[in-house]
Amino acid sequence: QVQLVESGGGLVQAGGSLRLSCAASGRTFSSVAMGWFRQAPGKEREFVATITGSVTYTYYSDSVKGRFAISRDSAKNTVYLQMLRLKPEDTAVYYCAAQRSSSGADYFDERTYDYWGQGTQVTVSS
Fold first, then answer.
1. How far apart are CA 47 and CA 107, in angstroms?
2. Cα–Cα distance between 84 and 67 in angstroms, integer?
3. Mean pLDDT score, 20-35
4. What does the pLDDT average to over 36-49?
5. Residue 85 vs residues 15, 49, 58, 103, 126: alpha-carbon distances, Å
6. How far is CA 58 from CA 3, 70, 79, 108, in A?
7. Rounded distance, CA 89 to CA 113, Å?
8. CA-closest candidate to residue 22, choices 88, 96, 92, 90
9. How far apart are CA 90 and CA 54, in angstroms?
C-alpha cells in the first residue's frame, strides 16, 4: 500500500523558514515526479513545486520561485520542500503528491498525480 506522509508544518512568523518532508512507502518514487501543492482557506488547490524522476528537473510556481526549493533523497524515498522568507500568503495546507509513472504528464496539473498525502498545515503570521 502506497503512503505519502508529510511533516514539518507549523506556525512561523513572516520572514521565517520551514522545511517540509514527504516520506513515501509502499514503492520507490525515484524515477517519477513528486510535487507539492497547497490549498489556502477558500481557495482551490494550487501547484507549488515538482521534482522529476530519472533526469532531475525542478519547477516552481511564480509565487514561490526564488524562495522555495524542492529536493529528493532517493535513498530515504523522501522529498523535501525548503521554504524561506515565508509570507502570510503562503499560509495553506501543503500536500505532497506523486505520479504513478514517468509518462511526461503535465507536472503542473494536480490531476496527473496519482498518490497524495494527508497534508500539513503551514501558518505564517504577519
1. 9
2. 5
3. 94
4. 97
5. 4, 16, 19, 34, 12
6. 22, 7, 12, 11
7. 24
8. 96
9. 30
pLDDT in tens, 29-40: 988 999 999 999
C-alpha–C-alpha distance, residues 8 and 19, integer Å: 6
Q: Which amino acid is at 55?
A: V
Q: pLDDT category, 103, cuts 50, 70, 90?
A: confident
Do 22 and 74 touch, CB atoms closer than 8 A? Answer: no
DSSP string, 46-57: EEEEEE-SSS--
**Is 47's pLDDT higher than 80?**
yes
Quote the Cα angle for 94-96-97, to 5°.
Answer: 135
**Residues of 13-49 as b/e, b for ≥16 C-beta within 10 angstroms?**
eeeeebebbbbbeeeebeebbbbbbbeeeeeebebbb
